[in-house]
Structures are given as structure tokens and as C-alpha cells.
Amino acid sequence: AFKPMLLRSDGLLKQGSRTGTRIRYDTFFSNRPNPSGFLAMRHFLISALFLSLVVGCSNVKIGPHRIDVQQGNALDQENVARLKTGLSRSQVRFLLGTPLVVDPFRTNRWDYVYVYYKAGKLAEKKRITLFFEGDTLARIEGDLPAVEPAVQAEPKAETPALPAIAEAKPTAAPAPAPVVTTAATTSIVSPLPSPKNAPAYVDPRPPAELSLQPETDVAKIQPDVIPPFSGTDPVTAGDAPVLKSLNEWANAWARRDNAAYFAAYDARFVPQGGGSRADWETRKRQSLNAAKSIEIKIDSPSVERADDGTATVRFNQYFRSDRYRDAVVKRLRMVEREGRWLIVEEEVLSILRDTQP
Asked: What are phi and psi of 10, to 5 degrees?
């Protein structure tokens, strides 16, 4: 690296010795920068760095990370295609699972909903609604897989008749030669004969336990059989009149029939929280007349008899109108009057917050 500089210095020294001039050290080893070149290089580097940053940041999206979210029933297209009218509820549940939305007031309708959000944006949404008549599927609505139209076979073009060719009589194939099996053609060793009067062989291994196999045929799926719970007593024949009066009271409430509704209460009825019966009837008449539609559902009623001849009915009540809805646990104390059970006390025990319709 120093050879050119040394050669150049040697030449200058010789030239200087001839002319009698003095050579300065800072003439050859000057470290003073070049202002114009340095500024130009600095401007170029800054511009290139800024341009690279702009190009790199143009493809980067800055924001919070959003995960992919799947909600609802995973509707498999193969199982959805196997749906058809006439299936039972158990068969439908076997294919699609438990429905996501079930209206307690309309148990004949099941809604299956599936949504998929990709990076916070709705990418896919499916909804299938099933309508039952009793335990039988009657109607299917929603996003069903498209049925491919049947492809009609194109008529084949008639080929021209070929001239008859004399058929040659088949000749009998020669019979195959018999194959003689020798000990050299097989590696299987024949078992030794059992000795005479030997006991029968008994497998020492325990028998294999029966294992449950998943059923794949929809037609073989039987309806669910729910055994009775040990903690609840079945409704006896003596409780039928009490439950009949309870259902008549609920039906009169749903029809907004003021006369039949108030006739279900005994003359000794006292409203919950105190107050006069006249004020209670006034408030009830206003609410019945103001509502355009009322739906009442009585669920899981239980009857308890007392020694004084009264009956206490406890049940879950689902109420819905065009202006208000709630779900509560209610208790009615009823007394028999001339063959009919009337309400003496009405009390709301608790609110069913998790099962409000």
C-alpha cells in the first residue's frame, strides 16, 4: 500500500534536490477534509437512508393483534347434507349437536348459528333453523349446501353396422398341469399331533371387555330415554286437579281474560307485600289491557300437600309480552272450593337470571 506513495515521494525528493527546494511533510500527508465532497456524500447517505425507511414502512401495518375467533355450532357440510324431514330430535342432535339457541316458549324451533372472525373481521356466517312437529323434523331453513343438478347422459351416437364376420370356433384350452406341492415350496411347518386323551385347550387370557362403538347410521339412532331422578316424585293422580287449575290460570293470563284470571283467586287471597285486593286488581287490569300479547310457560311444577288440606305448587314461570319479560321461581298456595282449586297466596321466590328468555 505504501509502494506508490514511496515511489512518488522518491521522485519528488530527487526533483527537489535538483531544484534546491524543500519538501514539506504536510504536503503529502495532509488530513484536512474536502468540504464540498464530504457534504455531497452526507446528503446522498441521508437521502438513501430516508428512502429505505419510507419503502420499508409502507408495507407494515401498525395496530393491535386480533386473533381468529370461531363461535357457535361447527356445521359440517357432510352432516348438514344428511338432514332430511322425518328425522327425530335425537337423530338431529347426533348430526349437528346441541343447538346454540333454543326458545323456551317455542321448543319446536332449533337454531344453529356459526360465525368466524378472521383478524377481527367477519369472514363466514352460517345459520340453519329447524322446525319440529312433536318429535319429528318438519321443515329446514337457512344456509343449506347447494344440491348439484343431476347430469343428464348424452345420447350415444349410433354406430354404423359392421359386416358380419364369421366367428371362429374357440379351441379348447389345454388343461393345466397339476401342481405338486413339496416341502421345498412352503415354509409353514405343520403342527404336531396332539397326544391321546389330552384335555381341551383353555385360553388363559381374560375375555375382552365390550367396548362402545360410535353409531354411524342415522336411521339406527333411537330417541333419548331420560330416567326419572330419584330426588323428584312423579305427579300422582291426586295432583292432576291442582295442575289443571294451574294451567287454566296460566291460559287465562295468556288470553288476557280478566274474568277467568281473577276467578282463579280465592276470596281470601292477599297480595304479596300487603295492600288491598282492590288496588291489586286495578294494577293487574291495567297491565292486562295494556299488553298486546302475553306468553306464559309453566315448567317443572311440583305439588306438596299440607295437613290443613291446602296444596303448595312450586314451578318456574317464564313470562313474555310486547313490553316486558322475566323468568322467576314462583310458589302458589291453593285451596279446594267446590271441586276447584283456587289461589290463596302467590309469592315470587327468586329470579332465574341465567335462563331468561
From this structure: -65, -45
